[in-house]
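Researcher: Structure for this, please.
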Amino acid sequence: MYPRRARHPWGHCGSFEAIKFYVSNEIMSREDPTFKLRITPDLRRKVVEAAKENKRSLNAEIKARLESTFDHSDAPAAAVALREIIDRATALLKAYEEPDKNQN
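Model: Predicted structure, token format:
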């Protein structure tokens, strides 16, 4: 049996939420680049509240929110593809309805 300290490689976190947090967030090193950010007290309060709700550190919450803005980079391409589908469906509907008008 492992000694108590070696039970989990990430420390003494026994809860599922802590394990899920560890696995879902990449570990940041003290060697990662840092920068200062000026925000209003109201915005800071909102981010702190969101971090508590999501069970993240303030840094992890800001990082997750920033990264999520890049997840939608394919949105313009998806919008163009959707527009093409709508245009084709509209053309098919018109072609389907036109013979009915000619028969009357």
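Researcher: Any notable elements?
Model: Residues 38 and 44 are 9 Å apart (CA to CA). DSSP finds four helices and no strands in the chain.
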